[in-house]
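Record type: ASSEMBLY
Status: queued
Input:
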Amino acid sequence: MNAHLIIRIAKALLLARWKQTLVAAIGVTFSITMFITLLSFMTGLNDLLDGLILNRTAHIRLFNEIKPSLDQPINQSKDYKGSYNFIRSIKSGSSRQEIYNSQAIMQALRKDNRVTGVAPKITAQVFFNDGSIDITGVVNGIDAREESSLFHFNDYVTQGNPLDIENVSNSIILGKGLAAKLLANIGDVVLVTTAKQQQFSLKVVGFFQSGLQELDKVQSYASIGTTQKILGKPSDYVTDIQLKMVDINQAPTVAKEFAKLFNADAEDIQTANSQFETGSSVRSLISYSVGIVLLIVAGFGIYNILNMMIYEKMDSIAILKAIGFSGLDVNRIFLVIAISIGFFGGLLGLFFGFLLSMFIDQIPFNTPSLPTIRTYPINYNPAFYLIASIFSLVTTYLAGWAPSRKASKVDPVIIIRGK
Amino acid sequence: MDESIVLQAEHINKSFHDPVTIPVLKDVSLIIKKGEFVSVTGKSGCGKSTLLYILSTMDTDYEGDLYIGGQAMRGRTEKQLARVRNESIGFVFQFHYLLNEFTVLENVMLPGLKLGIHSEVEVKDLAMDRLNTLGIQSLAAKKADQLSGGEKQRVAIARALINSPSIVMCDEPTGNLDKKNSLVVFDIFKKLAEENKQTLLVVTHDQEFAKNTHRTIEMEDGRIIKQ
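Status: finished
Output:
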């Protein structure tokens, strides 16, 4: 009953000065709108930039590094067990880039439920021959299907069908920059020379554009089989195994485990790309700060309007107290006023924030380095809406706190006597 | 304690301390019994309004003891005192102090809703009943700021009566009204006192008004000189 009455009085006071109320509410609406839009846009952009690298990067990469053996023969000799052995000019031994027993490893990994996908890869250093000019490049042997489902390979193939490298024998997809250098079109044949001086003719079936121009100038993709043929290797030859994890945060620990288990080198995404996380967290921090500053400004607006309202309503406060409303009741009335400004202003703000985000989502954004992006990126994360509504209520509560306290302390005797 | 005593004040002293200490009430004691129509008169500054605010529990900064309906008011919390005002005291002020955001009916209902004993429908009936008694039921739907001074004061009286208080306190109820409206208001008080046996305590400097009440308390320089 009492709560109902307090809300009723608050409502009457609010509506009696609806223009002031509206101004206060618009302040909150504006800041919540900007908060939502800013965060959605910033996070959308963050996701886009991170995705540029992270989507195409394996969470864990298994490979064999060319390096000297840690266990040199002299250390195995019983005669020198007790001594320090200084060895100079160690050379990397006959270690191979190939992953031993790759088929069995891949089978084991596919059964591991922490792993969502496994894709093999072969990297081959080659020269592309264009008349008398040799251009250094890399042929990546991939499984086009796996690569598309795990690393969005199909998104970056701007012309041609990625599956053609599997279907057309001796075919290749060239990076856009590389194709431009070679003056190659789809259907043309390019000549590659391997490090072991073997020449191959490959048919161009598509172009890809990764968004990183340096990459596009050297990279090309062919099927695993084609690459094995170029290198003259058997069909179980694989240099890299790329993994996607269920939980990306597990990658570092699992990488260590796999390195030991499969006797290979394993690199996790956190180690390989640590700079990206730093960048996105700083960008989020900036957007949150700006959003909160906007809300604080709106809070001061509410504070001012409530203060003014209390001066105007001194008589009403005095009479409410005289007829039996306690200081606490008066305090609550003004808090209800403040919070309802926050609530309704905030609600409208969420709505307009959503509209504005949708609008930005429609603005064309074409850039040659991001072939898959057509409009500005927006992240519609419900968490932003939740944070914004909590913030709007908390800010208005804090803005209303001091004026409400002041109202509850109004001495009715002074007001009534003062007339 | 005597059941018939509505309000009792014992040895009330009060001083204002700003900027120097000036005593305004000196050893004031009084008793108001059920059904009495009492007026307090005296010159401006004799402390009669100050006394009323102390008796109404709104001013708690005083020495001495105050009993309303046999209950001591000393040492009560602000919230308990608000409850006492809501339940047992009705107020009529010189300046009508209606809430302009509400209609006449809502203004009258407000203390009743705050009391929370009756449902809203019952409070509405009670309020209409009070408005009928005062002959202003036709104003019920109007906003408070659309009324004339005399009408406002009658609405204020209706509001003071909504919770059937044990005492109605008035601070210069006719001070801001013309002759005709003053008479109307006085007649209402008279009727309330005689027909409804409503206890009334009226502070006024209107000698004419005071003369017609049952008992007049005269004050001078913070003391009661005649009861």
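Annotation: Chain B is about 35% helix and 25% strand.
Annotation: Residues 105 and 128 of chain B are 7 Å apart (CA to CA).
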